[in-house]
Amino acid sequence: MNNEINSLEDIKAIRKIMEESTRFLSLSGLSGVLAGIAALAGALIAWLFIDDSWSLMGVAAVVLVLSLSVAFWLSVKKAKREGKHFWTPVSKKMLVHLFIPLVTGGILAVVFMSQGNMQLVVPVFLIFYGLALVNAAKYTLGEIFYLGILEIITGLVLTIFPGWWLIGWSFGFGILHVVYGLVMYGKYGR
Amino acid sequence: MKNLISNLDKTFESRIRLGIMSVLSVNETYDFNSLKETLQVTDGNLASHLKALEKAGMIQVEKQFINRKPNTSYSATEKGLAAFRQHIAALENLIGIH
User: Fold this and answer.
1) Across the interface, which of B5, B23, B95 has its CB nearest the CB of A17?
2) Which of A33, A60, A150, B20 is within CB 3.0–4.6 Å of A181 for a Cys-Cys bond?
3) For residue A71, what are the contacts with CB-CB under 8 A and spacing of at least 6?
4) A91-112: per-residue pLDDT in tens?
């Protein structure tokens, strides 16, 4: 009997270590909600005040940098709260897999913009952001994969109806993030 | 019953050694400091268990320099992976998971 309990404990410990050493699980759900709100605020500012494309790019860049910093900061805090380290081999792997498509999409967006292909900027960035999430999902919470798929679909639909870019931005970067953030918050805590 | 227990590998009796093998069975390589953080053990303790696993041929060690700092990384050998899989199967047998 004692042997059985020990074996069960061993198996549990093995599974936990395998999961923790292959997935970064301290991703903060709250940061998703805040990123979504930042994107909605950005969309509102763009709608009310902005009529040239480079200031629009500026607003988008501020939203992106703000969201990533908040996500980074809250995830570091979450890892600390759970008694884990933020910089681990797996969190580094996740970041590399996230940033390769993300930076590619960012560069493409700037190139399209400088060539006057305004209509493609938001859809292309949504698509590459979605690909970045799908790519990084292997190394973090698996649900991020589906968020990525939804971003890709939003981006693709937007390439067909490019005039709706503001709605696409609000939905893809705003509403999807708020909803996903809330779901993750409910499931895994702050 | 005797047969079941004999499938358990003596080398993996310690929880720390099990932990090391768990990490190395799902990661190609892992460095000393990251292992220490993942398993939350002291330097000396980890080093002695790593040494034992290396002696038993379960893991291999690679020493190199990254930015002029010594870095030791570990990976599981074929033998180590097979032995670990067999050990897990034996554990599962004991608690009746098939």
Assistant:
1) B23
2) A33
3) A27, A28, A31, A32, A35
4) 999 999 999 999 999 999 989 9
Q: Is the ipTM of this complex over 0.90?
A: no
User: Which runs of E-coded beta strand occur in A86-150?
Assistant: none
Q: Which residue has the tokens 């994107």?
A: A39
Largest CA distance in chain B: 53
Task: For chain A, say whether B4 makes contact (Cβ under 8 Å).
Answer: no
Asked if residues B95 and A11 have their Cβ atoms less than 8 Å apart, the reply is yes
| CA dist., res. A102 & res. A69, Å (int) | 15
Residue A20 CA neighbour count, 13 Å, CB half:
23
Distance of alpha carbon A57 from alpha carbon B97, whole angstroms: 56
Task: Give the model confidence (pLDDT) of A43-65 as tens digits.
Answer: 999 888 877 878 888 888 899 89
Chain B nearest C-alpha distance from A152 (Å): 30
Whether residue B97 has pLDDT greater than 70: no
